[in-house]
Amino acid sequence: MAYSAVERRLSTIAASVEAALDGVLSLEAGAGETARPSRLVEAMRYAMLGGGKRLRPALVVLTAELFRADTAGALRAGLAVECVHGYSLIHDDLPAMDDDALRRGRPTLHRAFDEATAILAGDALLTLAFDLLAAPATHPDADVRIGLVAELARAAGVGGMVGGQMLDLAAEGRFSDAPGGPQDEAAVLRLQAMKTGALIAAPIAMGAALGGATPEQRAALTAYGRALGAAFQVADDLLDVEGEAATVGKATGKDAAAGKATLVAALGVEGARRRLVDLTAQASGALSPFGADADGLRDLARFVAERQA
Amino acid sequence: MAYSAVERRLSTIAASVEAALDGVLSLEAGAGETARPSRLVEAMRYAMLGGGKRLRPALVVLTAELFRADTAGALRAGLAVECVHGYSLIHDDLPAMDDDALRRGRPTLHRAFDEATAILAGDALLTLAFDLLAAPATHPDADVRIGLVAELARAAGVGGMVGGQMLDLAAEGRFSDAPGGPQDEAAVLRLQAMKTGALIAAPIAMGAALGGATPEQRAALTAYGRALGAAFQVADDLLDVEGEAATVGKATGKDAAAGKATLVAALGVEGARRRLVDLTAQASGALSPFGADADGLRDLARFVAERQA
């Protein structure tokens, strides 16, 4: 798959994600539910619909395709990861957290609605993620579905994404029991592996589980996921330094101002660029057991490294 | 089981819950985790340890016992429900929500720590709940475990607890797109069935699933759970009007001040008391297929109706 081909594929997957989310985030009460408050559903729709790269669902779908696994099930598992991603952005943007006003070029959810609604919409999306994974439509085998639940819960929890967000706030010197200030490279890598890496690696592991990967194949995909997650975050840190706010869709230059722990702060811009090249090569190399079948995932890694937004 | 016997049983279960939570909320990183930030774990422990009636875990355990199901697995499923309950209290207490200063006689989590930590600790507990359910220690059969995940996600989500909290805020007139003000009885019942009823009914349904209940048995337990959840909330509303803050462990009289939708507001104190008696009888009657085996659950319903805190 050439570079433009992976972009086309991402667009197709993103359109499927958008359509599927539109269906899932419905006002109609589901089985066993009493009612769905319209303001809450509208808030969830505001946060989740209307674009985004949908990178995480694409990772589930492209990984599952390596094994010719059912695409509809992979898409559904991808929706669950996207809901967790969406909830994390809503809560990260809150006044008590990063206090952001813009997200993808629009007012953040608590600005467009209100803070209470934003907290609850995030809570509801996190819960919905596990609801989606639990349904037989994701995979006929309960063992596989419960494996997806375990994978996503671990990636999102206290030892993963939420823990990483906590370390990030601590690095800013937000808490009196932690000094904050510049972090060394090892601390930044650990923080980023948790805060963003875990939710890049998880959809790849979930795609592998849906495809019934062998332990060797899982190990190769885990190595790919780790390198890709790290590359994603380096690209993000570089964008915050070098990107235009209009293209990125949110305020740039915020990391340095907030004293955020970034790899650019630890390695400098040139050092971070070199690291990005290394990580992309690592991600690509990890896929060697799959040969040319994994060219889509390789191109995706290149796309992630070179993205401008 | 006599009344004092159910109190003793609740104490025993509460001690087991406390010990199990102490183990689960550990600083040690679990399998596949990078690290657990100590401040976040301390916050989760502050919110979850140190007492509480542990009613929801007791409901899983006592229901599972009707079927002689494994108690250790039931306790673990009960921990998951307790984590969801704990997260909901943390988020409900936040300044943007109910802005409460006290919970069980101690400063609320965002007062004892800070708002960002409280948001993340709630998020982490919700995530942990599904992690707990996913592990084989809860039940050897993946079909049963995935059923528990589905049950809990539905009870906690947009059509359940979180949706109920949203309706509750709307009833207070918090949002410009909803008028708020006094709610009629039907609206209060719907709101309360979602906000608190769903997370009383869910552990009963989960105990039934762990025990391999027949459809008829499930239906009986569902009826019990609905009546018990409603009774719990009426008792709570009455406590807010009649209870002493020192006994209840949080500010009382707050519901009326906030214009909360309560059954006391809709029916008056005497009407609410009569309703409580009816609901307790309903809960008890629903269990008739189980005969005397269900006396523990009957006594529990009486305990819930008569509790002073």
TrEMBL record, chains A, B:
InterPro entries: Isoprenoid_synthase_dom_sf (IPR008949), Polyprenyl_synt (IPR000092), Polyprenyl_synt_CS (IPR033749), Prenyl_diphosphate_synthase (IPR053378). CDD domains: Trans_IPPS_HT. It holds the Pfam family polyprenyl_synt. It is an enzyme of class 2 (transferase). Its cofactor is Mg(2+). GO terms for molecular function: transferase activity. Its EC number is 2.5.1.-. It comes from the Bacteria. Keywords: Isoprene biosynthesis, Magnesium, Metal-binding, Transferase. Belongs to the FPP/GGPP synthase family. NCBIfam families: FPPsyn (NF045485). This is Polyprenyl synthetase family protein.
